[in-house]
C-alpha cells in the first residue's frame, strides 16, 4: 500500500480514480484530460495515481485541476510490453494497481487508465472480482452510428477471446444496463453479430445464444432484433451489438482502420490541385463537422463490464481530449448508479434461469 | 443438360461463363457489365446462362456484346432466399448451376455470378470438387489499401464459418497464388489476423497456424509478417490477410459499412450550408478521386479458391460497373493460368508436409 499524500476527496461528489501513467503520451496528456473533464463536470473529483514528485510538479502548473485532485503515490508503471500474468504477480506498487485499488476500497466509484489493456483487465478481475452470476467480463465500446444519439454500443471487444451462449446472454444484459445509463435508452435494441441474418447460418453457439437472448427480453427489459451483420454496426436498427471478444476486437480495429484510411484518402484528395485546396478551404466547416462525427477520441473509453466496480480503458494514444472523453463516460456511468443496476439485472436473469432449470416459474417483474 | 442455342465460343480466346440471373438488378445490369468488360478486353468471350428468350431480346439491343456471347438456356433462377441445401438437391436447370457446368466441362475457364453466395459456393463445391490437398475452400476479396497497387487481399471472407491451423496454411498458399497472378506481386507478404500482434495472444489454432505458415515461406514462395490486427487490413506492411470465414466476413462487412457511413456523413456535411456546398462543388474532382479509391464496385468480386475451377462471386447489388470489375478479375486470373499454379503450390506444400510427417526430408524447390 502506498502512503496517501493528501486526504481523500471531499464527500458528496463523484470520485474517479485515475491512472496517471502507462499511456503513450504520459501524465501530461492525462492531466490535460482531467482539466477538460473537470471544466465540464463541477461535481467530479479525482484520485490521481503515479509518482508523487512528478505529479505534484505537473499539477503545480494547473491549480484548477490540483484543487480537485488527491495524489496517491505509486512509483511503478505498467508498460505496453508487460504481460498480464507478470503484472498480476508483480504489479503491486504500480499506478495501475493503485488506481484499481481505489475502486476496490470504495474511495472512488470508477477508475480510468490509458495503460496496457490486457494488464488492466487482468488486474481488474483479480482485484475487483467478477459480479455474482457473471462468467466472463466484457469490454464495451461506442461506435459512431446513424442513430439519433450518434452512437451504438458493441461488446465484447477484447476482454476475452471467446464466449459461449450464456456469456453472450450476459453481454446482452450488461450492454442493456450500459445503454440505459450511459446512452439514456430506456429499452435498448440488442443484435447478435453473425455472418448472415438468416437463422440457419452461423456457429452453433450463436444459434443457442439467439434462443437464450430472445427468451430474456422481458426480464432483461430490452428488445431483440436478432442476428445482425458487420455492416449493421453503425445501423439505426440496433443499439447494442453482442459478440465474442475475438470477433468484436477485429471488428473494432477494422472499423477504426477503415475510417482512418478514408480520412487519409480524403486529405490526399483535397491536397491534389489548387482548385481542390480552395474548395476544401471553403468547405472547412463541413470537413470539421465530418471529422467530429467520426473522431475516434469522442468515442474513447472501453468500459469493463461484469466486475464489482467500473473500469474505463482509454486508448493508449489518447491525448487530453481523448482522456477527457473517457473520464466523462466514467463520470456519467458513476452518477447514474450504473454499477448497481447492472448487478441487479444480471442477478435477476440468472435467478430466473436457475428457477426455470429447477422447474420453478419465471417471475417476469419489470420495474 | 440444357440444349445449346449457339455453338461454343471460338478457340484462342478466354471464355468466361456468366450467370445472367440471380443478381438484385437482373440480367440488364449483367449484360451492361459484359459490354464494359468486353470493351476493355478484346480477348474475352462469354457463355451467358439464363432464359433464352429474355436474353436474346436483351442482347438484340447490344449487338457488340451479342457478337461475343453464346447463350445457354436455363429457365430456373436461384433466389437470394433459397437455402444452399435445396439448391444442391434441386438446382439443376438454374442459370447458376448451368454457369458452373461450363467451367466443369472446360468450355469456360472461369464463372461469374451475382447470385446467392451460399448456394453458389455449395454448387461450386459439389460440381467442381475440391482441389487435391484442399480441406476447406475459401472466398478471397480485395480491400482498398495503402499499398502501391491500391489493394490488399483477405481470405476467407465467408466460404465456411471456421478454419483450423492446416486450413489457414492452405489459405496462405492460395492467397499467394491469387496475389501473384491477380495482383502481380512476385513474393506476397502474408499476415495472420489476430487480436494482437504479440505471439502469446489469441486462440490456440492461431498459434498453431502461426508456426505452420512461418515454416512454409520458402516452399510457398511468400514472406510471413506474423500476426496482424483489424487495423492492418488496409496496411502497406502486408499484402494477404489470412483468417477464418466467420471473422473475415464480419471484418469485410464492417469495413464496407464504415466506409459507407463516412461517405454518408461526408455528403451530409457538404450539403449543410451554402459555403460548404460551393466548396464541395469546387472540390468535386477531389471528392470523385476519393470516391474512386473507396468505391466498393472497383473491388467487386470474391474469388472462390481451392476448387477445380475459378468462380467469381459478384455483389448481389452490383450494377454494370460492378459486374464488369468482377469479369475483369475473372479474365485476369484465367489468362494468367492462376488455377494450375494454385493447384501446384497447394500440392507441393501438402507433399512436403506429408514427407516431413513420414520422416522424409523436405525438398524446398522454388521454381
Q: Give the end-to-end Cα distance of chain A, rounded to a whole number of Å.
A: 42 Å
Uncertain runs of chain A: 1-10, 360-367
CATH superfamily of the largest domain in chain A: Isopropylmalate Dehydrogenase
Q: Which fold name fills CATH's third level, the topology of the largest domain in chain A?
A: Isopropylmalate Dehydrogenase
Which percent bin holds the helix content of chain A? 40-55%
Order of strands in the sheet with the most strands of chain A? 3-2-1-4-11-10-5-6-9-7-8
Assembly classification: homodimer
> What about the largest sheet of chain A?
11 strands, mixed
* Rg calc of chain A: 21 Å
What is the number of E strands of chain A? Answer: 11
Mean pLDDT over all positions of chain A? 87
Number of helices of chain A: 14
Q: Examine the secondary-structure arrangement and name the CATH architecture of the largest domain in chain A.
A: 3-Layer(aba) Sandwich
Q: Largest interface, with Cβ-Cβ < 8 Å?
A: A-B, 64 and 64 residues
The SS-based structural class of chain A is alpha/beta
Q: Which series of helices and strands of chain A comes N to C?
A: EHEHHEHHEHEEHEHHEEHHHEEHH
Shape label of chain A: globular
Quickly count the domains of chain A: 2
Q: In percent, how much strand structure appears in the residues of chain A?
A: 15-25%
Amino acid at each position: 500500500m502506498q502512503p496517501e499524500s493528501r486526504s481523500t476527496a471531499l464527500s458528496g461528489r463523484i470520485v474517479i480514480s485515475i491512472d496517471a501513467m502507462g499511456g503513450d503520451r504520459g501524465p501530461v496528456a492525462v492531466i490535460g484530460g482531467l482539466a477538460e473533464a473537470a471544466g465540464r463536470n463541477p461535481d467530479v473529483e479525482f484520485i490521481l495515481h503515479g509518482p508523487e514528485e512528478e505529479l505534484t510538479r505537473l499539477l503545480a502548473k494547473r491549480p484548477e485541476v490540483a484543487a480537485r485532485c488527491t495524489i496517491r503515490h505509486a512509483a511503478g508503471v505498467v508498460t505496453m510490453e508487460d504481460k498480464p500474468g507478470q503484472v498480476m504477480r508483480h504489479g503491486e506498487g504500480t499506478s495501475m494497481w493503485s488506481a484499481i485499488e481505489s475502486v476496490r476500497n470504495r474511495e472512488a466509484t470508477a477508475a480510468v487508465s490509458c495503460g496496457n489493456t490486457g494488464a488492466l483487465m487482468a488486474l481488474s478481475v483479480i482485484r475487483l472480482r467478477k459480479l455474482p452470476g457473471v462468467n466472463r467480463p466484457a469490454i464495451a465500446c461506442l461506435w459512431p452510428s446513424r442513430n439519433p444519439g450518434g452512437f451504438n454500443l458493441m461488446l465484447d471487444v477484447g476482454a476475452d477471446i471467446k464466449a459461449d451462449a450464456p456469456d453472450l446472454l450476459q453481454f446482452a444484459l450488461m450492454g442493456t444496463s450500459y445503454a440505459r445509463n450511459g446512452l439514456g435508452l430506456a429499452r435498448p435494441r440488442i443484435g447478435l453479430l453473425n455472418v448472415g441474418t438468416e437463422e440457419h447460418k452461423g456457429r452453433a453457439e450463436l444459434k443457442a445464444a439467439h434462443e437464450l437472448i430472445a427468451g430474456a427480453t422481458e426480464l432483461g427489459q430490452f428488445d431483440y432484433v436478432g442476428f445482425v451483420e458487420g455492416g449493421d454496426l453503425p445501423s439505426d436498427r440496433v443499439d447494442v451489438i453482442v459478440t465474442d471478444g475475438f470477433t468484436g476486437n477485429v471488428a473494432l480495429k477494422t472499423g477504426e482502420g477503415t475510417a482512418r484510411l478514408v480520412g487519409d484518402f480524403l486529405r490526399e484528395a483535397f491536397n491534389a490541385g489548387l482548385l481542390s485546396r480552395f474548395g476544401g478551404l471553403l468547405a472547412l466547416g463541413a470537413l470539421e463537422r465530418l471529422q467530429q462525427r467520426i473522431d475516434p477520441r469522442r468515442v474513447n473509453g472501453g468500459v469493463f463490464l461484469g466486475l464489482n466496480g467500473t473500469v474505463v480503458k482509454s486508448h493508449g494514444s489518447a491525448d487530453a481530449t481523448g482522456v477527457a472523453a473517457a473520464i466523462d463516460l466514467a463520470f456519467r456511468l458513476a452518477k447514474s448508479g450504473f454499477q448497481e443496476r447492472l448487478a441487479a439485472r444480471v442477478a435477476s436473469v440468472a435467478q430466473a434461469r436457475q428457477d426455470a432449470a429447477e422447474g420453478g416459474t419465471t417471475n417476469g417483474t419489470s420495474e
